[in-house]
């Protein structure tokens, strides 16, 4: 059985065309954040509480950050 997190990682990897690490982490002032870590791995941080506040916004933010990972 797969979790929602597993599907998010697999989706991000497929859409971005490269390995992507997805984390639920608070970043002050941001709902989502995409960056490259010191090892060159693309990391997407998503506000953890967003998934409980608004599912549509959660999906929008996730896909927005994946588009950053693509570029």
Descriptive report:
The model has no long low-confidence stretch (mean pLDDT 92). It is built from 3 helices and 3 strands; from the N terminus they run αβββαα. It has 71 residues and is an alpha+beta fold. It has a 3-stranded mixed β-sheet with strand order 1-3-2, covered by helices on one side.
Describe the structure concisely for a colleague.
46% of the residues lie in helices and 21% in strands. The protein has 71 residues and is of the alpha+beta class.
Low-confidence stretches: none
| Count of strand segments | 3
Count up the helices: 3
The biggest beta sheet, please?
3 strands, mixed
Which percent band covers the strand fraction? 15-25%
The 3D shape can be described as globular
Question: What is the terminal separation in angstroms?
Answer: 31 Å
SS-based structural class? alpha+beta
Using only CA atoms, what is the Rg? 11 Å
Task: List its salient traits.
71 residues; alpha+beta; 3 strands
Helices and strands in order:
Blueprint: H1 4-16, E1 20-24, E2 32-36, E3 42-46, H2 50-53, H3 55-70
Parallel strand pairs: 1-3
Antiparallel strand pairs: 2-3
Helix pairs in contact: 1-3
